[in-house]
Amino acid sequence: MPDKIENGTPKHLKARDDLVSAAKSLLDRAFKSHHSYYGLCSTSCQVYDTAWVAMVPKTTDNVKYWLFPECFHYLLKTQAADGSWGALPTTQTAGILDTASAVLALLSHVREPLQILDVSPDEIGPRIEHGLTSLKRQLAVWNDVEETNHIGVELIVPALLSTLEKELGESSFEFPCKGILEKMYEEKLGNFDLEKVYGKPSSLLHSLEAFLGQIDFDRLSHHLYRGSMMALPSSTAAYLIGATKWDDEAEDYLRYIMRNGAGHGDGGISGTFPITHFECSWILATLLQGGFTVKQIDSDGLRGLATILADALRNENGNLSHLYLTMLLVEAFTEVLYLIDGGELSSLFDENLKCKIGLSVFQAVLRIILS
């Protein structure tokens, strides 16, 4: 049966044209959203990062004020009826992090309202109580602490709970997996010398908020890259909170992502920013693997995103040649053969495996010559 005709065009062709148009629109919008300095990111707003940014104070002309009151108001808007700040069916840890950090932010604002006078402490008090009740309820059934993929959770949660107890003036948190969490905390810290965080980049920079009051934040400024600590708003906020010297670049970074991130200025803060190369790669790979041809979606957006990736590879000593991976394989196998001949690895490889390695190197080189 022939396709229906709409405005002189077969329906299946019109649908295909609509898809191509939508793909081009996506590419163009993504490219136009890219900032030459701050990059590109479309990740959703996270309560955890928003709470830490809400706790950043600044003093100007001897007047102290909350730098991002929008973030505080965002927390008020997003608290759920059960007192939590939402819960995900796939992870209990996220709900605990969100609720604990949001309650800490509210406590900070009750202790020092500063310039935010439109919200009464009488309104915030019940919110804190409901939040604490929810947090204790979540901790009581927390069972994915060892499986969670949240970076630094074994450092962050103990620090959050300890800070909350200090704010409340009481020991409030007992829960079934507390012993497991404490063991994870001790094992994690046992692998690190905190002095080393002042030198080369360390994974601890992903969780700076866990070390407020424990390290000298003034000695971390060299780790900033375009205003951020590891592209994490929470760590960047912690840096501003903990340092005695104000950093305008870090402030500008947080201000930019609040205005231009997924929250679009409503106070919500993305969980990470930027993820430029992931965004570009994901969009391009998804469209091309989905059946679009380069010719179909050729546009300023396509060329722009491709250029961003190509420039990044060049700037980071990458290689755009299709033979690059072959070169790496040959280099690695040649080094292995050298070590085998020297007797260092001979006991690990039998004759059959040695033959396969040599054959792989031969075939790789031969294919390059023949091509």
From TrEMBL:
One of its GO terms (biological process) is diterpenoid biosynthetic process. One of its GO terms (molecular function) is terpene synthase activity. Gene3D superfamilies: 1.50.10.160. Belongs to the terpene synthase family. This is Uncharacterized protein. It comes from Gibberella zeae.
